[in-house]
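Incident log entry.

Two folding requests arrived from the same account within the same minute. Monitoring flagged them as a possible duplicate submission, but the sequences differ. Recording both here for audit purposes.

Request one:
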Amino acid sequence: GHVMHLSCFAMYIRGQAYTCPLCKKSVDDMREYFSQLDAAIWMQPMPEAYSSTMSKIYCQDCSKTCIVKYHFVGCKCTHCGSYNSRELERMVLHPS
């Protein structure tokens, strides 16, 4: 719902940006791209040293936080399935 000149938006998108420059929500249907990220994560498992590493993330699409397994490709929101997330904290869980 944010206003932007069409020519400015076209230049912005050409720069490979997929989020609104004001609110950072995804500006297009990202399901295909997020599916590609799912595949990349599946094909590149994290090393064993990171098996207990978790990330607390903030999803910029649904505005919720969650804790997910850390992956260098990206962190997927458990609420809406978006990778448009920001890591707030990284932690290592130790078995009790």
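Request two (distinct sequence, not a duplicate):
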Amino acid sequence: MKKLILFLSWSIIANSVSAQNETNLKGLETLAKQGDLAAQIELANAYRKGIGVIQDYKTAVKWFTLAAEQGNSDAQYNLGIMHSFGLGVAPNYQPAVKWYTLAAEQGNALAQYNLGRLYYLGKGVPENLVYARVWAKLASSNGFEMGIELTELLTELMNESQIEKARRLEKECVIKQYKSC
């Protein structure tokens, strides 16, 4: 009898929490549709991770896109990831480069690192060790430690004139606050 009562209590609590989550989700969607940036990001992350909803990358892309178009660097970075790996969209490095660049120009170290990798690999952009090193170095300067490793690898692959050109561009990028690098 105690087990049955405990089960019924748990079932009532679970249904109450589920109804509350559904209400919260609808409220969040309403705000997101009205252009609320925080709501768009929260919904995008919920769908990307499957938190409180069934994981749905395509819906995550929809909400990240709306947030990214408002200039949010985290949403732009996440769209770069989703396009790079084909999560909710067909894999395509060209839009990934676009979104990484927008986020990188705002100082997003993860986007800077990934942009450096794409230049190194020639994915979505022509292979360019100079630009790869610029973005990797900027990422490491902004606290992303893997940027150090990529910078070192690239430095080993480059000649002196390429390294010097990269150093000049890095300084210019910092002065221009990463715009048009």
